Queue: 2 jobs
Job 1
Amino acid sequence: MTCVKYIPQAKMNFTRKSTVGWSIENILLDFTGGVSNYLQMVVQSIDQGSWVNFYGNIGKTLLSLVTIFFDLIFMFQHYVLYPPKKPSKCLEESNEPLIDPSHESI
């Protein structure tokens, strides 16, 4: 299910050459959760003196790997390949009047 969710978004970002329209914050939270999952498994393995946490629950391990993989792709797309564009000069606030006062009609 995770691949079904992430592959279309990665393809759409690539096709549009943009990540506008979706929240990078959710990806950062997802990445934090995946990394925290691995840290938990490492701490448990050290405590138990066995690495069965990694190969004993292969579903959890693979799901975390896939999630972290796609999160890294999305972060690379958002921050490196297609960073947010800076606003153009015409959109900046200006104190100049829109109409030239010397051309006012009475």
Job 2
Amino acid sequence: MASEHKESSGLSDDQLRILEENFRTNRHPEGTSLMLIAAEVGVSEEDKWFRLRMAKWRKEQGLPPTIGSVLD
């Protein structure tokens, strides 16, 4: 799975591991937290990884892919 995601994201296995670890801790990093994660991984703070990962997690949980739905 990591190699499959790696191909589409262009991130290394180490970058994905760090992002996944942070996602498990905080699904909505903001401000300084996001800046520190981005610096550690070597990606832009605007990187869509967390947003896409959240949509994937919500789908796995049987929730709509976006927050704020009536179905939440």
